[in-house]
Amino acid sequence: MTDRPNLPLAGVTVIDLGQIYQGPYATMLMAKAGADVIKVEPPNGEPIRARTKVGRHAALPLAMLNSNKRAVTLNLKTEQGRALLKRMVARADVLLENFAPGVMDRLGIGWDVLQEVNPRLVYASGTGYGLSGPDRDSLAMDLTVQAASGVMSVTGFPDGPPTKAGPAVVDFLGGIHLYAAVLTALYERHFTGRGRLVEVAMQETVYPTLASNLGFAYKTGGEVPPRTGNRHGGLATAPYNVYPAKDGHVAVICVVEAHWTALLDAMERPELKDDPRFVDNAHRVANMADTDALVQSWTERLTRDEVFATARRHRVPCAPVRNLIEVMNDKHMHGRGMLEWIDHPEVGRIVVPNSPLRFHGADRVATLPSPRLGEHNAEIYGGWLGLTDAEIAALREAGTIT
Amino acid sequence: MTDRPNLPLAGVTVIDLGQIYQGPYATMLMAKAGADVIKVEPPNGEPIRARTKVGRHAALPLAMLNSNKRAVTLNLKTEQGRALLKRMVARADVLLENFAPGVMDRLGIGWDVLQEVNPRLVYASGTGYGLSGPDRDSLAMDLTVQAASGVMSVTGFPDGPPTKAGPAVVDFLGGIHLYAAVLTALYERHFTGRGRLVEVAMQETVYPTLASNLGFAYKTGGEVPPRTGNRHGGLATAPYNVYPAKDGHVAVICVVEAHWTALLDAMERPELKDDPRFVDNAHRVANMADTDALVQSWTERLTRDEVFATARRHRVPCAPVRNLIEVMNDKHMHGRGMLEWIDHPEVGRIVVPNSPLRFHGADRVATLPSPRLGEHNAEIYGGWLGLTDAEIAALREAGTIT
Predict the structure, then answer these.
(1) Are B378 and B343 members of one domain?
(2) Residue A218: inside a domain, yes or no?
(3) What is the CATH classification number for the domain harbouring B393?
């Protein structure tokens, strides 16, 4: 047994061509698990860097999703640039990209070419609709895939328009599935000695999440699942809703009968335990408006915290609806190390996330701020690849690197 | 090199105590990648089976998320049952559960105990808030974690209430992150020879997805990120919205200037290329109402398909908002094998998803319908563990198995 660092992905080298959210999230998780992630960007930076120039909006997402990576610039539209990429790939375990299908192939650095350079390479492709099929070339962003995949159709209220999920859930479902596929191929590689092309289509990662909503179609013999507001996606559970409190909102859900009887106790309405309208879930579902009105008549007289504390005491599933400033400052997540204040040299004092993947007993990778554009060119091209100063200068002059 | 099956997770045995969505999704992906997944349920079945009795609603989710598993019953509240679990764990690679924190420990079959039974075991825990911290024991379901994690605060319209994402995105983000953590530990095990306790808290998997929304707080120096309807979560991009068509809705987004000029061409309004209101993204954002009104004046005169076809021709990112019957029948996903019609013995003719994790060149695991409760008791207890018929009969009599 060698002195392997106590980090799950120690020794794994990742060439990260990811852009915006999907790719960068996957590779950040790899970095947080101990991998050496090299973020390779065009000379002007990956697209999200451009957005930091228009106001300061995207500076935070960039900083949130690129901690613990080293960054180089590389012009892949030049022959020299592609040759350098191949030299990096020869020494790497993983290459990950979330370009549109065909981009890497047209540059002559797709899977077919790179697997010859390094048969042990795991090549990860993240796209909107996948590398095959009639919709392959549809331009894919989180918004459009939310539309095409069904998310919008079942989000929002019956009397309102289809609504997007506020967070970019599709991008991130895509990203974590891509991480999952890479690790599966790395696991397999121990046995086979060979890499694989692994692929994730964002649209496909959405489909399983629609389980409750699709259950409605099944239950009704094929009706179009509706928007249900804050009610159960299949309209099969009650109470299940978001209720107004004096100073905000709370979510309340009863999954088993014990939750309901406990809720009646919490609301000081134990006499309703025999009320035929509410006597079991099926009846509460049939009388959903009355069920919701009953719960609301309790919550609206109290603050969020009062409702939550009382529900908690009675073991009724409940949570306050929190805004993002509250979430960003959440003591629980900060205490667990999931969130962390850092002083970012470009962005300032901000909260950044660590990895939701926890490995008990492993060392923790100390958070390093996301890198500046091309910050590690000398270290990677000189130190790692062994180019001389003259060679590096020539590459800069040619615009291959910056 | 042995004759290893051409499946990434060939030879991996998973003891699946998962319930409802989070755990079962993770283990189904393992089964689809070639693992042998044994779903272990209480004598009355895991909770989602109970919901199939109340109407038929949950029959479909159960069938969607448990393909390719074998199922046994086991009463873990008995000493005999726990002893049997330990015998299974001794021969397994992974045990996965998404019970509330402490459930397994209180039964005497938590990580501490099981790692002694099998030091190579990867033990995966999926919860709402994690195994530590002040909120550890808050009851966690998709709805309540959507509330606490911030999803609801930024979903919906500014003049409407906080709204849940229609699909159970939190449950499934938790599930795929749990898969990812397991595979990371399995990868590491090749080097260390030991398993790990891996943990995922659903609330933590949500935080990164809030990147755009948190960017708003950053840009404004700390304002609470608002609900933005179908607009960009950070209100930093335009056009970015869902627009009405004659027969539905379409999502349209311009990420680079080329998209905008192409959209103007598509809308047959090339003269607006010099209109100061729309001349670049910053101006379009500043004039967001006018920008949206312009796009809507085009889309509302056309059908969804007409808008999509025209946008596609001009390479403008666009997608029709599709309902779930359309999505379920999507030719593209069926053609790619992501969706599949099967004849399920209990549920009938239904569409089930396969895995979004694609491994090019690997064999495909043929879809087997989700198992009946206890369907494989004889095969697992007799065939795999080697119990005699008399021993199995005794276990049934005692209520340890069914």
Answers:
(1) yes
(2) no
(3) 3.40.50.10540
The model scores a pTM over 0.90: yes
Residue owning tokens 């159709």: A153
Tokens 């049952």, located at residue: B81
Among A54, A129, A135, the residue with its CB nearest the CB of B281 is: A54
In three-state secondary structure terms, B178 is helix
What percent of chain B lies above the pLDDT cut of 90? 93
Residue B52 has pLDDT above 70, yes or no: no
Separation of alpha carbons B178 and A29, rounded Å = 13
Please confirm, yes or no, whether A290 is among the known catalytic residues. no
Looking at the fold, whether A315 and A393 belong to one and the same domain comes out as no
Tell whether B229 is within 8 A of chain A (Cβ).
yes
Instruction: Check which CATH number belongs to the domain holding A305 and give it.
Output: 3.30.1540.10
Catalytic residue (choose from A16, A93, A171, A292): A171
By 3-state DSSP, what share of chain A in percent is helix, strand and coil, each rounded to 5?
Answer: 45, 15, 45
Interface test with A, best of B169, B182, B220, B347 (most A CBs within 10 A): B169
- Based on the fold, state whether residues A310 and A171 are members of the same structural domain: no
DSSP letters for A21-42: THHHHHHHHHHHTT-EEEEEE-
Range of the domain at B367: 13-207+336-397
* DSSP letters for A202-243: HHHHHGGGGHHHHHHHHHTTSPPPPP-TTS-TTS--SSEEEE
Which of B321, B354, B387 is the last residue in one of the domains?
B321
The pair phi, psi for residue B215, each rounded to 5°, is: -60, -35
| Residue B44 amino acid letter | N
B58 close to A (CB below 8 A): yes
A293 with A350, same domain?
no
Where among B321, B356, B372 does a domain terminate? B321
Q: Which of the four pLDDT bands, split at 50, 70 and 90, describes residue B123?
A: very high
- CA dist., res. B124 & res. B24, Å (int): 12
What is the ipTM score, two decimals?
A: 0.97
